[in-house]
Predict the structure.
Amino acid sequence: CGAQGTHDMRAFLTNSGVRVTALCDVNKQRIDAAKSHIKETYGSDDVKVVSDFRELNRDASIDAVLMALPVHWHSIPSTDAVLNKKHMYHEKPMGMSVAEAKHVRAAVRKTGVVFQFGTQQRSAVSFLQDDQQFGLHGPN
């Protein structure tokens, strides 16, 4: 429920096809701040709150999860979520190493869950224009 997770959650709260039902963080202040956004949208902050990702991932009532963790935590909770058949939106990077990223990818392939990886900074027009300004891409 840090900066990126809250940003993503607030975007989810604008989508009528999504319902935020649970929050997971070890930091109570972040949980409280996230709950205030949920209350503002739904009129109630009645959501499940857990501090252990394993508990969240094993909850059969949850269809999908957002992984927006500190980088050193990306691959372990993500692999656990995938193996618990959770669909996922995953912030970059997938892990601390190529090996960790391949581990997550193997779990996705094994289970067939829907997996989306946040690569906006590689595809959004505004970032492409910035890259061209600094000569990071060749001519179009």
